[in-house]
Design goal:
265 residues; alpha/beta; Elongation Factor Tu (Ef-tu), domain 3; 5 helices; globular; binds flavin-adenine dinucleotide
Amino acid sequence: MARYPRLMPTEPRLFTATVARTERVSPSFQRVTITGGELAAFEWLGRDHWFRLFLPQAPGAPLRLPKVKGRSWWRSYLMIPAGERPHCSNYTVADFRPDADASELDIDVVLHWHGDELGGAVATWAVGAVPGSPVGFLDQGAMFDPPEDASEFCLAADETGLPGLRGILRHLPESATGTAFLEVPDGGDVTELAAPAGVDVRWLPRTNGHTPGQLALAALQEVSPDPDGYAFVVGESGLATGGRRALKKAGLPTSRITFSGFWRA
Ligand SMILES: Cc1cc2nc3c(=O)[nH]c(=O)nc-3n(C[C@H](O)[C@H](O)[C@H](O)COP(=O)(O)OP(=O)(O)OC[C@H]3O[C@@H](n4cnc5c(N)ncnc54)[C@H](O)[C@@H]3O)c2cc1C
């Protein structure tokens, strides 16, 4: 298996931008839009194009960024003194609107709570993001990369994979067929999305008591995949690994499955 996904840039570029606005778009998603002159050079692949997001340690603090050499950045990141090191997490390009002066990039951040408290540094940042505040992001390309002969698609994600699945459904040719399972925390997160007519989009809103990812996993366990198809399964780690196992057992070669654990419950 290749060490790096084919669609990951060999010389990933680090961009800086600032927050333009933030808006609650559904019960579980906060959309942060970032902008800046450097974004004109961003080459958006569509599909699940993702990046490493860097945020200042605290609101108003300066943003220090690692040096990037080829694909290496982690060592340089760790060399930044702990008190100045930016927060880093992985996010997906939910949408990109290129413009010579004022390109905009949307990030759809899942809001998750621990009791009454908003959880996670990025969710907290997203809700309180102040226009003009700095961010950095390191381009990582896309993971969705079906074989050319793939005849049918099986897509599954929890809420963290929804921005990616939206992009993939927009990217698929109109002739594509298959099924997309989209698990979300709340019925209010179900929204219109563009998809080829032959792809059956099944929303799976969670009801109380379900561990995230388990509804999508149960749906995948009922699928009879076309052995010449292609599957893409992302989200909570149990969904990603369990989904791959179920599809493999049902006859889909592992070379035709892309899976990734985005977070751990
Ligand atoms: C390629 C890729 C693309 C991704 N794209 C997106 C995206 O577009 N939008 C998005 O919202 N997420 C996305 N994620 C998932 C995101 O990176 C994780 O949810 C990450 O943990 C959030 O970072 P954090 O720093 O806020 O929280 P962390 O510091 O990582 O975690 C803090 C606590 O929150 C918990 N937690 C983290 N995420 C969730 C969650 N979703 N629900 C409940 N509890 C959670 C953790 O288990 C931990 O206990 C993506 C992940 C990958 C690998």
